[in-house]
Amino acid sequence: MEIEMLFAKYDVDGNRELDEKEMQQMFADLEGQKLQLDDEINNQQSMIASDSSRPPTAAAFGRGNGSGVPADEFNVLTRRVDRMEHSIGSIVSKIDAVLVKMEGMEKAKVKRRENMNKILNSISESENLDEKAKRQQMEQLVREELQRWDSDQSLNMRR
């Protein structure tokens, strides 16, 4: 579901692939969100540091002791934040892995397209051959290309 939302937001041309410009926009937005969160954290820390600028808390009104959050509640919230940070880190590393795989797929697609163009060009350039010779040449070129693909896939599986 999150991936669909990501593509809906950043896949401007609708081809279901993020090109370099679209990925740069995504990274820029993520960096902006990170800076925004950093600013919020810094503002919270500065408010905590100076008690005079600190707004009255609900705990001060409700409990009357003004001590803030109880230690056990603070510990529970700290553990939840730690789990969230771990989950977010895991998600970011998965997104990075997906982007790396997408780059590899894009490079392979370009390479296959170039090779198929070479095959088609060599067939169209051999006008002096009869149909049987053209067919044999085409079969040979396609067979070689398929063997190249198989060897590339076997190399990728060993990684």
Automatic annotation (TrEMBL):
This is Polycystin-2. GO terms for molecular function: calcium ion binding. Residues 1-33 form the EF-hand domain. The gene is pkd2. SMART domains: EFh (SM00054). It comes from the Eukaryota.
